[in-house]
Amino acid sequence: TEYKSLDEYLNGYSIAQDKLAGIEADGVILTSEDDPVCPVDDFRTLVLPPQIDLFITRYGGHCGFVGPAAPGFDGYWAEQRIVEFVARRHEDRRAVASAVDALDTEGTRP
Question: pTM of the full predicted structure?
Answer without folding.
Answer: 0.67
